[in-house]
Design a protein that fits this description.
This protein is α/β, with parallel strands linked by helices. The chain contains 16 helices and 16 strands. It has 2 domains: about 210 residues, Rossmann fold (3-Layer(aba) Sandwich); about 190 residues, Rossmann fold, CATH 3.40.50. The strands form 3 sheets. The chain has an 8-stranded mixed β-sheet with strand order 5-6-2-1-7-8-9-10, sandwiched between helices. Strands 13-12-11-14-15-16 form a 6-stranded parallel β-sheet, sandwiched between helices. The radius of gyration is 21 Å and the shape is globular.
Length: about 400
Amino acid sequence: MPEILIINHYANPGSGRHFQMARELAERGYSVSIAASSYLSKTNEQRSENISSNGIKFFFVPTRSYKGNGLRRIINMVQFAVKVKGCLPRDYKPDLVIGSSVHPFAWLAAEKIARKAKAPFIAEVRDLWPQTLIDMGAIADKSIPAWFFRGLEKRAYVKSQHIITLLPAADAYICGRYRIDKDKITHISNGIDIREFDFLAQDNASRAAEILNPYKDKFLVVYAGAMGRANQIDTIVEAAREIAGAGEDRICFLLFGQGTEVERLKAETDKIGLDNVHFMGQQPYSLIPALLRGCNLNIVAMKNIDLYQYGISLNKLYTYLASGRPIVFSGKVANDLVQDARAGISVAPEDSEAVAQAIMTVMADKTKAEEMGRQGRRCAEESYDIPYLANKLDDLIRRCLSNERY
């Protein structure tokens, strides 16, 4: 029974990409352990007791708490990477190690553990470092931090036996900048556990109905996800303003989630007197499927930046597809799932007027909207269900363990 170690700072028992993938791998005969940070920033809680969930062993690495994206968060990341090895059992020896960014320090820890165990190391690329920070305006292209992170990035790509990318066109970046062989890279996107989604939607239908009841006579446009600088909620709020200005009072926007931009956005909507936008706060994921099913339209907006030429893999998009509701997507990306699946209407990034028009177009044709929802659901079932994605990971692991090349 091969022992697989997954190092992911933000992994969580019961939910998320790696828990779901690990659960599938366990059903296929693997023994899987996940090392994650003790600190959960979303709930501001510390986890101290190592646990086993669905046969998956979780080891929690002690790290300091933090708020925001400042120095304390960087310290938290470094602490995690430094302490991972010491939090594993003394005689623990994995057969294969997967190091997953959000941050690249996890790659260093995974490489070190794999080298000592004489095991293959797979580098999983969730965000392109430091290109994401550069394109988001957080650091300068020629800065010392960019130089430092590029060094970590190159090391992971060179030292790993294989690379997993969540972004479908990231191989162009990796191969072009670092001359990595394209055969060393496999794309495995985020996805959605359809079986779990359907169970949660049914199990929480009454609770979701209570939350949505005050808006039951409206055409409900829903956003569910983070509300930080990268999420371009301003486009959604501006679209709501366009709709209100057109005298359309049947459409209501419900925004579920939290983030650094929430208070600013609330203040802006209050200032301009928008009463068709409601900030609903953070809800547990267990409620999200039922909430999406109870609404009419899902929405997501992206910034207009070069980074997205390498594609996106937004968890919320796969959840939207599974809901069977049409989607309005505002963005310019390498992989427009909404357009490709004919699951809704795609418009240019940061174009609130086009977003508003797309929403009203969907509302005006119920039959077409239902067909869009069915197409999206079909896409989720056929291409992004977790068991399907786990098959790709299983195949890659087997090849790495047998030293096969792609």
